[in-house]
């Protein structure tokens, strides 16, 4: 059974309702959103060797092919430029974008999904980044400590050499967190308990 990374918090909040709704096999629309267009332009920025002009042209082309009104394009271009400037100031090396992940949490359940960016910070180690378009309570999300452990194992690094974080396009800033060994272990226990609830034969 596969549990989408993006569904993990829904399952965590109410595993019984999530299971009864068969959330693990829900399908989602594939239509283009303006925020999605911006994120695709970010991936193009890195794919083209951090070429802002290529990324901007990609954003404009994607926008014109999918949306009729021009009202949001200039703001998206500003956010792309802010992102590029913030990235260059960081001094990180992007190892990979759109990183596919699969984390076994027990009872034959794998949490699967995609992490937008994995960096090497020459001063601190590895950083896995998500994107947001406004403030979120991401530090409390179960996926974050699980992903810190996942990337530590994947990269052959210690837990303290991996951080996870979010780039917020609306605020144009990065915030990251390094969870303690105890916090990661607690997350593993909670994830295993969740897997047991989702796969039990009878739920009261």
Q: How would you describe this protein?
A:
The chain is 45% helix and 25% strand. It is of the alpha/beta class and 204 residues long. The protein has two domains: 136 residues, no CATH class; 60 residues, no CATH class. Strands 1, 2, 3, 4, 5 and 6 form a six-stranded mixed beta sheet that branches. Strand 5 and strand 6 form a beta hairpin. Helix 3 runs parallel beside helix 5. It starts with a strand and ends in a 5-residue tail after the last helix.
Lay out the secondary structure.
Layout: E1 2-4, H1 8-13, H2 15-20, H3 34-47, H4 52-66, H5 73-90, E2 93-106, E3 109-121, E4 125-132, H6 143-155, E5 162-168, E6 173-177, H7 181-199
Overview in brief:
This protein has 204 residues and is of the alpha/beta class.
Task: Report the end-to-end length measured between terminal Cα atoms.
Answer: 21 Å
Number of helices: 7
Strand-and-helix sequence, N→C? Answer: EHHHHHEEEHEEH
What's the shape?
globular
The averaged pLDDT comes out at 93
Percentage beta strand: 15-25%
Structural class: alpha/beta
Q: How many DSSP E strands? A: 6
The low-confidence runs, each spanning 5 or more residues with pLDDT under 50, are 23-29
Rg calculated over all Cα atoms: 18 Å
Helix percentage range = 40-55%
Number of separate structural domains: 2
User: What characterizes the major β-sheet?
Assistant: 6 strands, mixed
Provide the descriptors you would attach to this structure in a database record.
2 domains, alpha/beta, 204 residues, six-stranded mixed beta sheet
